[in-house]
Design a protein that fits this description.
TIM Barrel, 10 helices, alpha/beta
Length: 272
């Protein structure tokens, strides 16, 4: 999820906790959504520092926040009209390098990159794939997972992404497809991990296929769109509602064992 002090911020984390939640992966917001205009690489530190500071504040509520930092792929269409494509590529690559540095310094557990989830002209698509490949190399060198924001998952698409990761020397097992549909066997076959959106019926469909996935809300904490994409309390509420039918152990796998394996973190086995 994303948290923003301009909106619910810590209050959303507290609501998550009251619903039974204990741990979150806190993903940096796109720079333009927090009023940061990227003109030089150092500007990315404003975005990343805010995420790290928010994680520290969340930790004080009793919820453990694991920061994930990176450059949103939509930045390419936000910036290139202002600074040109070459400079946009340079800035986005620099931002990813800075994010990798935060991981290496122990301030974040993973990186974020991807490619536009909407149609763009060929030059921007090619540049986006170049930037994504570089992000994979950086994640490889930093020894961390890479969370991907991309187009809607298809078998062809996720196999392409897995191939890109292998070419970069990054295991697909360290790649997470954010905002995934319930395609559990297909993801297992290519090696990438799906973060299945906890929308209506999607978790039940995923559970019917297996337990090799994680759950997400993509809560964006946007003052203009409160509650979008899914509310902060969605996952603990949905998990508790499904336990009677599916049992406890499958959710320990989804919420503890799987993210521990992918993100190389420790998630305490607690109950609320």
């Amino acid at each position: 999820m994303h948290l923003d002090y301009r909106c619910q911020g810590i209050e959303a984390a507290k609501a998550f906790k009251r619903a039974g939640g204990t741990h979150i992966f806190l993903v940096s917001k796109p720079s333009w959504t927090i009023g940061v205009t990227i003109s030089q690489p150092e500007d990315y530190k404003l975005v990343f520092n805010e995420t790290v500071e928010m994680a520290e504040a969340v930790n004080k509520t009793g919820v453990t926040a694991f920061p994930v930092l990176g450059v949103h792929p939509a930045a390419i269409t936000k910036m290139y009209g202002r600074v040109g494509l070459d400079r946009t590529i340079e800035l986005m690559r620099s931002g990813l390098e800075i994010a990798a540095g935060y991981v290496e310094d122990g301030l974040a557990v993973g990186m974020k990159s991807g490619r536009p989830h909407y149609e763009v002209e060929p030059a921007l698509w090619d540049a986006s794939n170049e930037i994504l490949a570089y992000a994979m190399e950086l994640a490889r060198d930093a020894g961390c997972p890479l969370q991907l924001h991309t187009e809607t998952a298809t078998v062809e698409g996720i196999n392409e992404l897995a191939g890109m990761a292998r070419k970069a020397g990054l295991s697909p097992e360290k790649v997470i497809k954010h905002f995934s549909p319930p395609m559990i066997p297909e993801f297992a076959k290519c090696g990438i991990w799906p973060g299945v959106l906890a929308g209506k019926g999607m978790i039940k469909e995923a559970l019917a296929q297996g337990d090799r996935f994680m759950m997400e809300t993509d809560y964006i904490d946007d003052p203009q769109r409160p509650g979008a994409v899914l509310g902060a309390r969605t996952i603990p509420r949905k998990t508790l509602a499904l336990v009677d039918k599916w049992g406890d152990e499958v959710f320990w796998k989804i919420h503890k064992e799987n993210p521990e394996k992918v993100y190389d973190v420790e998630i305490e086995r607690t109950t609320t």
